[in-house]
Amino acid sequence: MVRDLKGDRMAIYTEITKKDATKIVEEFALGDLVSSSGIKNGSVNTHYLLETKRGRFFAKIDEVKSELEVKQELDLLFHLRKQGFPCLQPLKTKTGRYYIEFRGKCLTVSRHLDGIELPIESLTGSHLGILGHTLANLHLIGRSYKKGIDNRFGFSRIVAIYREVRRQLPSHLRNIVRVLDDEFSYLENYLDNNLPKGIIHGDFFPDNVKFKGSRLVGVVDFEAACRGKLIYDLATAVNALCFVDQRYRIDRFEALISGYESLRPLSLPEWDSFPNELRFSALRFTVTRTKDFYLRKTDDSQRVYKDFKEFYDRLLVLRREKSGGMEDILLAMATGYDYRKYQKSKPSK
Fold this sequence. Notes:
By secondary structure, the protein is an alpha+beta fold. Helix content is 42%, strand content 15%. The chain has ten helices and eleven strands. The protein has a five-stranded antiparallel β-sheet, with helices on one face. α3 packs antiparallel against α6, α3 runs parallel beside α7 and α8 packs antiparallel against α9. The longest helix is centred in the last third of the chain and has 27 residues.
């Protein structure tokens, strides 16, 4: 079992031995290997830090994506980097390929991003403003990306995953099943699909952004990136960044939204849909975490456990079944749309 310096378990599903690492750095012409170690980053794929005499590099083994899906993710990263977005830069092998086959899976290598992942409690209003601005920048840059990437976590797909999950849930979780059943019935009727769409990150969490002090140095993990509703991506960021100590924090929400709207103001339909997108985001992560962690049969030594109840608790707050700061957030959403931004100025007489 691979552990980090604190002894925490990490997501290592496919082991890279020292011999493997030596071959990988040779294949990508990275220089002589100094060390290799599994790193705690993400929970679906396997990640390693490769250190050579030429620097530090980030190796990723895609555990779930097909070769075509890996190619699509790489193509998106190339586009974003070309536009100046701070994401990973995939490297070529000596033969000009951007990935290699490794034990039946795709392995890619990027330059390592220096910086740290701040715990949610350490993200200040300034950090949140920067993150809001960065997400809006991604959405604007994504307008020029014309290739389609299917949304693996859209409503119909989550319905299908839930049907599979529901059959396996033990009877003592029947109250959770009742809530999720009701939520799917509600959202089926009230989600608005006629909203601005484009490239979304889909997983804009604190552990997917790196800072050096107050400066954002990179956004990682485009595993869930696809074409989808921009407001859903922002709602996921709110759920990930603004819920602390079992409640939504209005100060954090305002900082994130202010940063976002400094670059891309939300439309009235997006403001109207915001509460339901928050609910769908919470529902999506409740369902996928139940499938990937609660029900997944894997060796505990490989598991990075993410509790589905963290997002189930958010869902209860969003459904007004549990207190947790939702009133302030709803009021901010109700008054967030500033009509003056969109009124045409009257000609002077």
